Fold this protein.
Amino acid sequence: MIIVMKSGAPQSDAAKIMEELENKGLQPVPLYGVERTVIAVIGEERELNVGHLESLPGVENVMRVVKPYKLVSREIQKEPTTIEVKGIKIGNNQLAMIAGPCSVESENQMEKTASALSKIGIKLLRGGAFKPRTGPYSFQGLGKEGLEIMRNVADRHKMAVITEVLDTRDVELIAQKADILQVGARNMQNFELLKELGITKKPVLLKRGLSATIEELLLAAEYILSHGNSEVILCERGIRTFEKETRNTLALATVPLVKQWSHLPIIVDPSHATGKKSLIEPLSKAAIACGADGIMIEVHPNPEEALSDGGQQLVPEEFEKLLENLKPIAKAVGKTF
Ligand code: PEP
Ligand code: MN
């Protein structure tokens, strides 16, 4: 941390601050300039209260030099984290391909989807049973019934279940039935939910919030890790910008940047990022090319009849073709699926 004193502030102000820092076990190193004093602070700065330091007499500015997260960072763990779900290792050279409808609507819809996907080797089945909808009159998901449907269908096809958890009250139930618990964009900063997921034993797929910075995404993951669950998969799903042609703006730089800063795996969701079928293939290619550990795509047997996100869901045949077209890109970056 760097503490910049005001121009002309008496040296006694800096001395008081240095004494306080020393009492907290930190090592302040003063640099006395012609106009002002700057104090470099050596030691664990994450627990220092910046607001308090800024409020002290003579202080102009306080700057952090280390990232505010710890457990998710590469400094703590150099090797990438791999998370194993049903024989699929997420975070290594095998790309995690997650597919399935936006919402679980019926046994028949899930059966059609899962049988088509499992035939082409997909093992990770997505589908929302509890849905976070913008308006209260839209389809809210089948809830517990949807969860049962998904589990039964996935078991029949030896697939893993990825489904969203909206509320702390549902964590236990969903953790019993699902293999990966998804935190949706709208809940990325639901800190009570993150803490609760920290004490479950199931991997968590944490989606980036609509207006969250990369640092905030990593801090949200830090909540889960710091409560005991180290199995977190991050997901870039686009952020809200002034652009209206796509549902969101896919911020692909997140992928290599997160790889530099964190050991956690990161996947990309081009379906929610674009909202447009025609953009899913090019952006999936780009995601794989820039180092994503997997992609998550919405697939529905009959998108025109879908109860949510009909316009962005691929039919299984389109998805199969997409997979074929992704293979050369995966090969080029040394990955398989
Ligand atoms: C979803 O994946 O089902 C979903 C609702 O996406 P997001 O939270 O990214 O909007
Ligand atoms: Mn959706």
Remarks:
- Residues 102, 128, 132, 164, 184-186, 207, 237, 272 surround phosphoenolpyruvate (ligand 1) (CB under 6 Å).
- The mean pLDDT is 97.
- The radius of gyration is 23 Å.
- Residues 83-332 form a domain with the TIM Barrel fold (CATH 3.20.20.70).
